[in-house]
Amino acid sequence: MSDSDKWSINDMLVWDSHSGFESRPDARLNQLKTWRDAGVSYLSVNVGYDVRPWQNTVNTLASFRTQLAKMSDDYVLVKSVTDIDRARAEGKLAISFDIEGMESLNGNTDMVSLYYDLGVRQMLFAYNLNNRAGGGCHDKNVGLTDFGRDVIKHMNHVGMLVDCSHSAYSTTMDAMEISTDPVIFSHSNARALVDHERNIVDAQIKACAATGGVVGINGIGLFLGGTIDPAIFADHIVYVSDLVGPEYVGLGLDYADEEEAEDIADVFEANANFWPQTQYKDSIGGFMSPDKLPRVSELLTSRGFSATEIAGIMGKNFRRVAEQVWR
User: Fold this and answer.
1) Contact 194, 175 (CB under 8 A)
2) Residue 204 in contact with residue 169, Cβ under 8 Å?
3) CB atoms < 10 A from the CB of 268, how many?
4) How far apart are CA 315 and CA 134, in angstroms?
């Protein structure tokens, strides 16, 4: 491949549907430089999850919004897809927020619209363990509760993406049946390739595509089979593409830098019930960083993907869904 044929990350929209760093008010957003330097156009930043109380989500949102306002030369907190396009034209990284688990609602569906107004554009049901909304992927396989069903109605109304990552099989299948908007898995890999409970089975992938949604491929080594080799990451893209089509595949790296990885390890140790030993007996295997995406694109080219298909996987597929769902 000649230099003129090589893919440049600066040539297309790159959409990372989930960051992996710890969500807490004292977290510093200077780590966003990793994505900006790698040429990523848009990143969804997690601001809360079921491991921490709902007040943490509110306080983290307050902190992150304040920090971003002071970093406006480099980052933009976006409300719409048009804002993302404008941020990209200005050479800035577009940011919105996500929440991992509906305990952040404190049992109150009115919180959905509040979070949306504060910049949250996607939310998943449960973080690994069952909660008031439904089931987690490392717990008893249960479906959506009445509360969870009501939350989906509110999410569809305000334009928040329904995200099925980390959730139980039955909960995800219920959600994809009743949501009137496309449903996503923001950061989940193919269980057919790596048999881990955090990965998703073919029926979930097919149901997601049937809603018009997208599966974001996760860059954590454990869910890739113990390695962060871009070739293995590409294998999961190829698998999902072969199963449902490349228009239903995207990126959800779940990346955390070295400093954040140490903090996450401390959280693992203090809240071991969220990460059962049967599934996490070894190291999580590291995180694939966004600067590896050009290599992923080269691998996809070598495996027969067209430039249009790669552009979709790198960002346009998630953009399409957001344009349809966000209000």
Assistant:
1) no
2) yes
3) 14
4) 29
Q: Which residues on adjacent β-strands are paired with residue 96?
A: 44
Residue 77: beta bridge partners? 95
**CA 172 to chain centroid:** 15
Sequence-distant (6+) residues with CB within 8 A of 62 are 25
The amino acid occupying position 24 is R
- Angle in degrees, CA 186, 84, 155, rounded to 5: 45
Total-model pTM:
0.95
Which residue is associated with the tokens 């097919």?
206
* Count of C-beta atoms within a 10 Å radius of residue 238: 19
Which of helix, strand or coil describes residue 117? helix
- CB atoms under 10 Å from CB of 141, counted, come to 12
Answer for the pair 157, 199: CB distance below 8 angstroms, yes or no. Answer: no
Across the 327 residues of the chain, what is the mean pLDDT of every consecutive 10-residue run? 46 94 91 96 98 97 98 97 96 98 98 98 98 98 98 98 98 98 98 98 98 98 95 98 98 86 76 92 89 97 97 98 97
CB-count exposure of residue 246 (10 Å: 0-12, 13-18, 19+)? buried
The tokens describing 275, both together, are: 């990460």
Helix/strand/coil for 175:
helix
What's 160's DSSP letter?
A: P
Alpha-carbon distance 136 to 158, whole Å? 24
Residue 239, SS3 per DSSP: helix
Domains defined along the chain, listed by start = 13-325 (3.20.20.140)
Strand-pair partners of 183: 162
Tokens describing residue 309: 């298909």
Q: Is the dihedral of CA 298, 303, 305, 307 positive or negative?
A: positive
Euclidean distance between CA atoms 79 and 94, whole angstroms: 10
